Amino acid sequence: MSNSYKNVDLSSCDKEAIHLVGKIQAYGGFIAFTQDWRLAYCSKNIEKFTNLSIEECFKIPSEQLISPSIFTEIKHFAQELAPEQTQRVFAEFIFDRKTSYDISIHKSGELVIVEFEYHQPVQQRRSLPSFRDTLRSLSQTDSMQSLFVHATEQISQLTGYDRIMLYRFHNDGTGEVIAENKTHEMESFFGLRYPASDIPKQARRLYVKNLTRQIEDVDAETIDIIGSNDSNEEAIDLSLSSLRAVSPIHIEYLKNMGVGASFSLSIVVDGELWGLFACHHNSAKYMSLELRSIIEVYGEVFSLELAGRLRNASMVDTDRARSLQVSIMSAMNNEETVYNNLVPHIDSFHELIQSDSTVLWVDKKMAQTGAEISDEDIQLILKELNNYPTNEVVYSDNLASFLDSELTVSERYAGMLAIPISRHPKDFMIFLRKEETQAISWAGNPEKPVSLGPNGSRLTPRKSFAAWQELRKGFSAPWLEKEIGLAKLFRQMLMEIVIRNIDERERLIRESQQQQDMLIHELNHRVRNILGLISSVISKTASNAVDISEFKQVLGGRIEAIAVAQNHLTKRNWSHAPLQELIETELNPFTENIENNVIIEGPSVNLLPKAYTTLTLVVHELVTNAVKHGALRNDRGQIKIEWSLSHNKDLTIDWQESGYENELATKKGFGSIIISRSIPFDLNGTADVIAHGNGIDVTLSVPSKFVVTTDAQPKPYENSSEHTLSSPTARNALSSALIVEDNMIIALDLEDTLYALGVKKVFVSASSADAIKIINKESISFAILDVNLGGENSISIAKHLKELCIPFIFVTGYSELQGIKKEGFENVELLSKPFSNTDIKNFVDGLVK
């Protein structure tokens, strides 16, 4: 095993690997097993316990080294052990039936560590049954100091050590003896302060892992840990070991103190090392593992009692703080800045946290109360504070150590507590305290913790621990836990106030600008879409018209229907419009003489813009057909229109018409396509048209996402975000094409255009999921993608096409293309709606070249 003590002195003891010493103390034995229960390591004194040589111990099976019954028990404990957990067993026969041992079991990496000590019966007064009254008495002390004194007396009774010190750590790492119980022969260290270097950081970490630590004899030899021939030569981590040998530096330290044996009991509060019960004895002294375990329980109970009292002592005056918050909130003027809203209340903050000066720094403006402080000094403090996270309250009772040593702020103020009240820019409320000179008694001179010793250049611990007086300057009164807790509460409160104030003011400005931008943006989008829709309507109407007169009449009616839908929606800020108004608007011009022959029934239902526009065209075609061929042609026809909502708010519309000449069943013009295909394509709904002897029955179903009932809140108009372009690669351009477009009429017009250009097969989709299915199933030569597909976009389709090297083009009603460029499609061609057949032809021709 490696020796980690080489070249170690007090100048480097913070880096000393005290958990990798490779040695144990002589009062016990050590064995370590691999996962397959082979002996990997043992202490060199194993022969004393087993009557076997070290070589024999490594050669024989582990079941023969240890009694089978306890070996089975050890295996069981090892399986149940949690990380950093130790299991202890007392008065067990390990090697024979003559000698009993106390056993400690834990894991170190892949090894199972078993440590054992000779068992010693615990005296009756220290046994667990009599221990109950000892624990109860802790809660009966009437003050914090009486708790400390009482605890040191009880530890003295339990351990029998000559001197018991309750040693508390301060925020700066130094420690102070705050209670003491000792025999008259022992020197008193009560009230003395110890430098942070006396207990290095790595030692403090081990005190949290191992709550008890015994050094039986400072003069005893240590025992090496020996590994088998095939064991790893790396040192074993002994962080959880109760027998771990002691750093030579610490041994020298204890000897210089006149200590023959020591024992420590950790005090851990909220996972942090709060302090120690440090026990010293004039001569060597051993306590059994069982007694140390009992004392460990005492330490944990004491820590819980202390934690509860500390929490009570640090409880913040939340009532006064909340009262201040209510006062600020009620007086807040959202038209004013954060600074102007907080300045009137700075005196109240100053009263709640005791300080000499309180400073508010917001929006590069400063307000203060109490003692004067210059803007220059505040700037120096702010410069350093800006290096800290914005979610932390920052405090120090020594500004000289907090700031650059050359700065003179600390000559005027010694303590600072800063509360961040915004993220960017960083604003603060700062409490400042002036210096309070303190007389501190150190255990020896803290400025000379080491001196040159007999080992040449190697440093040795100081030999004198006599009280050394220091008049400490440059420090303020320390910030109490209660004050720090109040500062944290202030931070939450101020952040809420600041965010509310800033958000409210910025919201008004932002909403005004956004509303203007949105109106322009949406107007542009809608105009382009409506122009594209009208262009497609013209094209499809022309292809089905018999003559110019019919073309003008049919086209005028369809465009008028679109215009009516736009007007109804515009009147309601493009939110939603009533279904009944839509139907009545289309029927009114034709029902003056036959109004008794038309029945309209249904609940009050509104439709979102996309559904309203689509249904307007469908109802217009139904009315047009009724005028030309059916119920509205004469006074003998009858139309019954009913609608209802299902349990999941889907809308069903039934159009029942008699007096029809039945052309619809034999002639499939553009109007019939609008009736039968618009709702399935545009809205993912259904449309069933059944022709019978003298009329037709049409059942239309609109999904609930497009429906707004009268008792529901209007659904917001959904914007699609901007999207982007990619670089196409031509291949077999005229073989097959995919159109992704959520407007059926535009999709049909594109379909006809592509067939006219010679494309052999055209697939049409209105959604990303359906489009990707088509791409994966069919052989697609190129694609035309509408960027905005209602509630989604076609970016995922574009990425899929790009991966497959299939060329494509974007079409859109939007003009802002930053989003598309951000997605990596800046080189893909984009057509703005409305586009012409020539635009599509140019794109296809470009693929063929």
Structural descriptors:
849 residues, alpha+beta, Beta-Lactamase, 5 domains, 7-stranded antiparallel β-sheet, 6-stranded antiparallel β-sheet, 25 helices, 38% helix, 23% strand, disordered N terminus
Please characterize this protein's 3D structure.
This protein has 849 residues and is an alpha+beta fold. The protein has five domains: 13-118, PAS domain (Beta-Lactamase, 2-Layer Sandwich), CATH 3.30.450.20; 124-313, Beta-Lactamase, CATH 3.30.450.40; 318-437 and 473-505, PHY domain (Beta-Lactamase); 545-709, Heat Shock Protein 90 (2-Layer Sandwich), CATH 3.30.565.10; 736-848, 3-Layer(aba) Sandwich (Rossmann fold), CATH 3.40.50.2300. Helices cover 38% and strands 23% of the residues. It has 25 helices and 37 strands. Strand 7 (163-169) and strand 8 (175-182) form a beta hairpin. The radius of gyration is 43 Å and the shape is elongated. 38% of the residues are buried.
Largest sheet: 7 strands, antiparallel
Backbone shape: elongated
How many helical stretches? 25
Let me know the CATH homologous superfamily of the largest domain.
GAF domain
- Please give the domain count: 5
Instruction: Please name the CATH topology of the largest domain.
Output: Beta-Lactamase
The helix-and-strand class reads: alpha+beta
Question: Beta-strand level of the residues, as a percent range?
Answer: 15-25%
Distance between the termini: 77 Å
Instruction: Bin the helical content.
Output: 25-40%
Mean pLDDT: 81
* Count of individual beta strands: 37
Under the CATH scheme, which class of the largest domain? Alpha Beta
Uncertain segments: 1-13, 455-459, 712-731
